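Q: What changes when magnesium ion is included in the input?
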Amino acid sequence: MAGLHDTGSPCHLLGTPACPIHELPREPNARLEPLETQNKTLIQAHAALETSLRAPRESEENARLILRAAPVATLVMNRHGRITQANAHAEQMFGYPGGNMAGLAIEDLIPERFRAAHRDYRGNTERPPQHRIMGMAGEDFYGLRADGGEFPVEVGLSPLQLGDERVVVVSINDITERKRAEEDLRITAIAFESQAGMIVTNADGIIVRVNQSFTRLTGYAAAEAIGQTPALLRSGRHDNGFYQRMWAAIRDKGFWQGEIWNRRRNGKIYAEWLTITAVAKPGGEITHYVGTFSDITQNSEAEAEIHRLAYYDPLTQLPNRRLLHDRLAQALACGCRSRRHGAVLFLDLDNFKTLNDTRGHAVGDQLLTEVARRLQTTLREGDTVSRPDDTVSRLGGDEFVLILEDLSESAEEAAVQARHIGEKLRHALALPYDLANREFHCTASFGITLFHGHDDSIESLLKQADLALYQAKNAGRNTLRFFDPAMQAALDERSALEADLRRALKRRQLRLCYQPQLDSRRRIIGAEALLRWEHPQRGSIAPDVFIPLAEETGLILPIGHWVLQTACAQLKTWSGKATTRDLHLAVNVSARQFRQPGFVAEVEALLDDYDIDPSRLKIELTESLVIDNVADTITRMQALKAIGISFSMDDFGTGFSSLSYLKRLPLDQLKIDRSFVRDLAHDPNDAAIVQTIITMGRTLGLNVIAEGVESEAQLEFLAGHGCHAYQGYLFSRPVPVKEFERLLEPA
Ligand code: C2E
Ligand code: MG
Ligand code: MG
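A: The predicted holo structure follows.
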């Protein structure tokens, strides 16, 4: 029964339209009024028609005239569904001017899709003819124009018995306009319930409507606000002049816009961005005021700025530590859902401090900005592994952290992927920098740890990555290191060791061992003092284990001082005996100790105190120490050299071994690293290196000593190539002083 309704009398034409009109302002809506009038006219015309059609036959002509003149589109249809009469309105509405509608089937005026159902309905003789309306609320019913166009209609049907003929009077109302109005009302109603707070007052400023956002933003329920004036929200922060200016603008321009402080129901004052618009009738008379506002403490630019400051690093614009934590938490949650691995990369520039110290902070900042840019662009290069939104953040200083997500489900593959990205970044950062028109080279070290969902906490991940970074630094910088549990265990042990080391000096657990150094005729010409830590529980601890720790914690300063002092005391003792008077004593000095401001004075003071011949003391420095700051090293070395102290370059061959700086250093000796000596017999490469070092020493006029000599074969090779001195287990291990002195006694 498509499109048809049993609705009773035609007065239902006034029925409620489909839109939620109760949602709209209570005042009668101006746009609806003409429609209602239209409907009334329709009913009246209908009644008149019925009366005229029931009239005696002689007034048939009158009836026809009345029908034609009726202000409503009207048709008369016989029981076969044929149109017998149509008035001018109907002809115009359906596009059949000139009276050619009679004879058409009523279905010709209905779009195809309604026809079958309509025909069935009409043919159903069971149903007694009655008044009905088609196209009422909710049910769409359409008319079909001669040109094929459709238009929404409301149709009134009135059955009528004319003598022995039963006809139906059909009146049609084109409701296109009404539909549009309904649509508008529906849109308005939805728009009214937007995110912005809305308030509608009448012309007297009495609140007549508010929306739900109003309630959400101010805390006042609709029932509490309606009937009041907006003064309800006044914060007391604006004087009367403010409100006067506001109303003057509304009067003049029809609207006002600005920031206003209001008070919520709970007493809290807040800033809102308010727009007030006057609603006027066509004649200009104002009927309502509509206010729209948003809480700008929530979405203002000021807030965006606060957010930026709170979550981004002002120098590089990268996320800061706080945002990193948020992102990491998200990444952990995502990883948990997807089962994929992620990685945290911790990176630190290798020589940032030098740049900052020598060229100033502005240049340092430039470098950091460029590093940030390179990290981001490298990640964005559309790699198959990295993603454009992988987070790069700056923790401060020259420390950056990257979160890589969506790596493989397999830990091994994920590690390979993370290493791949890490290597790419490492290469990108190692390219030269142009800073204030000067080229600068900078490398970075990376610590990497993998994560897999919630198994890991943010803190422990960052710690792991940091630890791995530390390993990377230890491994010589400009490199990548992964965290693994063994690393963690090493850290724990390190902490325990550090605590013990702090007490070692006081508890007299440190002592020096002496390893003889011999000349080409196998005569002991001196010794290297090597530190030992006699730990009450762990036994003797090798310096390789605790010297780096002492360096890092600064404990190397008191320890190094103790070593020098003990060495000087020993030289003093030796100076009193003919067998030991001519011995040299070599002492290892580490970078931090050598670089401390008072180092030269400290050595001078010790030499004075013990009153010893400075030429008996030899200082061993490593290549990396020298390289770090060549100019400062030279100054210090020269100062010490002037007193009479000599220098040996320890572990020679493992570092840069560059002739250019070697020539500038006031050195006395090169010490071939034991790693080259060890493999002399098997590794032709090492043999070549050793030969080169000896030649280099000769060229520079330096004495050459080989350490780690364990076999006669090694000794033979070294001697054959012109090495001057030797040290190694072949002659003696490092031993306590008494034992060393016994070595000096003739066999
Ligand atoms: P180094 O200065 O290169 O010392 C030589 C190391 O080689 C010593 O290890 C020594 O025991 C070892 N050695 C000597 N001959 C042989 C050999 O024939 N075969 C093998 N395999 N090894 C041999 P040690 O005593 O464990 O010292 C290790 C490092 O610790 C030293 O390397 C030095 O860099 C550092 N160190 C030792 N004492 C001190 C100190 O008082 N101050 C500072 N700053 N560092 C020290
Ligand atoms: Mg040494
Ligand atoms: Mg060495």
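Observations recorded in class: The chain has four domains: 2-19+181-301, 33-174, 314-483, 497-743.
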